[in-house]
Every structure is written in structure tokens, then in C-alpha cells.
Amino acid sequence: MLLSLRRRKNPFKELEKSIGYDFRRINLLETALMHRSFRFENSGITSDNQRMEFLGDAVLGFATAAHLYEKHNESDEGDLTSFRSQTTNGQVLAEIARSIDLGAHIKMGKGEENSGGRKRESNLADALESVIGAAYLDGGLKAVQKIFDRLFVPMLENLSGDVWEGNPKGKLQELSQRKWKCSPHYRIISKEGPPHATIFTVEVILDDGITGVGRGRNKQEAEAQAASEALSCIERHKKRH
Q1: What b-and-e string marks burial along 21-39, b requiring 16 or more CB atoms within 10 Å of the CB?
Q2: Does the active-site annotation cover 129?
Q3: Active-site pick, 129, 203, 223, 229
């Protein structure tokens, strides 16, 4: 009777079906879907999904690493790292989030929503990681594995043979070490916007003066864009010479 009542009142029933896991503590899922902008615009709310995102990122990385280790037993550490990056980068996470319509469930402030936040790649990726973190708190690694098997394993069957795909920072690091015997240098040029919607601008500088600039909702996203721009610049330079 109580279970039946819970299911009728549960607003996340379809989402749970999509991810392959039913939460015992729905409040954890509610927190996982609360964007920081909603907390900033509503007094009395003291938490959002940022801490769960941190946890979910780590747990997802472990689940992916364990799967790849077992599946690709002839791959070395570098290849496994690249394959993991292909699986867990922001673009891929956002694509998975879109496939289950996760954006429709995120609670966010009016300003963020009016600026297209419900479709923003970083918001979708962060929310998916938060849901995974919430699942870990609710049911441990078994819960995470159910979500991983439903959402991630089918995608892992189609990994690109390019070990650097989805990892521009890794590709730039490897190229820089091989060509100039040093690492790229990243620096933050600016941070704009309110705390809950900060835009980072990052520049990467290589030993021969080649640079790249990227922007993103966090430092990692901006650095990845900067690395991509630097790689494009290197390719253009090769074609001219």
C-alpha cells in the first residue's frame, strides 16, 4: 500500500524508468536535480546539486574505468584513459542527458531558464553526474551499475579508434611533450557573470608561441576548448608549410 502510494506521488517515475534505477529516497534525486541558480533565487533552500555532481563525477569515472579494464584487456593505460575521456566528457554526458529528457526535470532559477539553461550542455552534464552521485548515496555501487549498464554500456560498444577523440587536452599534452619536451601552459584570462553562472575564458600557450582561447561554464570546459583551438591552429600551420 505504501509502495503504491509512493509510486503515484513520485514525479520522477518516468525518469527512473529511463535510467534503470528506482530511488528509495526520492529526496536525493530531488537534490540532484536542483541547479544552484534555483537556490540563489529562493530563500530558505540551503543545498543544490554541486556536491552530488562532485561525487557522481568520481563514481562514474570508477565505473567506466572498471568496465574498460575488463573489456579492453589488451589496451595500455594511455588508451584506457582516452577511452574513458570519450565516455565521460561533457558533450557525451549532455547527449545522454538529452536522450532521457533530463533537462525537463531540472529545477533552476528563472534567469538561468530564460537564458536557455534547460538545454545548456554544462547543466545537462552536471545534472547527470549529480543523479549518479545521488544513486550512489541511495544504493551504493550496485545502484550506479544499473544506471551505467542502461545508459553508458551501449555507447561503449561504439568507441572511436582515435584514442584522443573527445580529449583535446590529452592530445595537445602528448603533442607538446613529443615536439617541445614541455607541457602546454593554461591561464585564466577572465571570469564573468554571477557565481551560479560564471563564464571562464582560458588561454593555452605552447612553446613555439601558438595559442588557443576557450570559454566555458567551468575551467575544465574552457581549457578543453582552448586546447581544441590550439590543435586547429597547429593543423593550419602544417597545411601552410
Answers
A1: bbbeebebbbbbbbbbbbb
A2: yes
A3: 129
